[in-house]
Amino acid sequence: MAKAAAALRWLPPETAHAIALWGLQNKAIGAEFGASDAALRVRLGGLDLPHPIGLAAGFDKNAQALAGLLRLGFAFVEAGTVTPLPQAGNPRPRLFRLVQDRALINRMGFNNAGLEAFTLRLAARRRAAGIVGANIGANKDSADRIGDYLKGLAQVWPLADYVTVNISSPNTPGLRDLQAKAALEDLLSRLAQARAVLRTEHGDRPLCLKVAPDLNDGAIADICDLAAEHAMDALIVCNTSVARPPGLTSRHRAQSGGLSGRPLRTLAAHRLRDFAAALHGRVALVGVGGIESAHDVLDRLEAGAAAVQIYTAFVYQDPGFVARLVSQFSALLAAEGHASAAAAIGTRAA
């Protein structure tokens, strides 16, 4: 598996990605992951997770390879981002490996096959295989972006185990404006109204909001207050960054788009602590950004995250990385004196 993963990295990034998805979909990549230690179990917004490590949105935009990804050992997989209508996304090239920096820059632009194809695959999945979330977004040229989120919510709600509202991609012009207080109030209030109806018809499930790392203290406070007021179950902190930290060495470092991977680790960890301090436990947190080791996982849990998501580190590793990370996290948890993963949550929160 390691040799195959290394070979893929010689191909253009999007080509390699498509081959990896095909391999996962057709069981040509990966092996069945054994059950994890009971001490690793955590609870997130009503979901019981076998351990706290999931896959972030963006890897499987069209819900093509959910079973294959879950077989690798992820506790949960977030599919999408999906928009109501299919869209091609931004012109290529739009995905860049910063190999020396262990990072990626992408400006994909919500390229996906649309809600119809996405929901057909969700409906066909074997739910017992594991927990799958749906990450919803708005079409680039939509005249009613909040309406797009409401369409997405209604379509995926009966089929997904949880739903994430993505208002933080830097690659759809104006999308991050929905994080401003007035716009976010409108969005969350309308989502709450729609959720109330969906809950009576299909039961409840966690509703999450994915936010950007490039926020000031005032924006963080507003987001936290509104998320709590409208009973959001979790904030996913955080999406990719438009900032470029000093020290990047790759020839692609000046490309526009969202930065992910190792260079985002410090900013993402600080931002998680900022949200934890502002929330005071009112809404759960999921830590994302630059996570590539068991120490990173434990750091985010101790800072207040109930779970974490990875992406870029998975891309740079082989399919066995998830199982190794879970095993290493289990050993580290015991070595640091935590009785369980759940007991570690918030032990070093600001």
What tags apply to this protein structure?
13 strands; 16% strand; 350 residues; alpha/beta; 3-stranded antiparallel beta sheet; single chain
Describe this structure in words.
Strands 3-13-12-10-9-8-7-4 form an eight-stranded parallel sheet. A three-stranded antiparallel sheet has the order 5-6-11, with no helix packed on it. It has a two-stranded antiparallel ribbon with strand order 1-2. It has one domain (2-344): TIM Barrel (Alpha-Beta Barrel), CATH 3.20.20. Helix content is 37%, strand content 16%. By secondary structure, it is an alpha/beta fold. The model has no long low-confidence stretch (mean pLDDT 94). It has twelve helices and 13 strands. Helix 5 (145-156) packs parallel to helix 6 (181-202), helix 6 (181-202) runs parallel beside helix 7 (217-229) and helix 7 crosses helix 8.
β content, as a range?
15-25%
CATH homology superfamily name: Aldolase class I
What is the structural class? alpha/beta
Query: What order do the SSEs take from the amino end to the carboxyl end, as H and E?
Result: HHEEEHEEEHEHEHEHEEHEHEHHH
Overall structural domain count: 1
CATH topology: TIM Barrel
Helix proportion range: 25-40%
Biggest sheet strand line-up: 3-13-12-10-9-8-7-4
Cα-to-Cα separation, first versus last residue: 40 Å
Assembly of the depicted chains = single chain
Q: What is the second-level CATH architecture?
A: Alpha-Beta Barrel
- The overall strand count is 13
- What is the molecular shape? globular
Low-confidence stretches: none
Radius of gyration, CA atoms, in whole angstroms = 19 Å
Average pLDDT works out at: 94
CATH class: Alpha Beta
Number of helices: 12
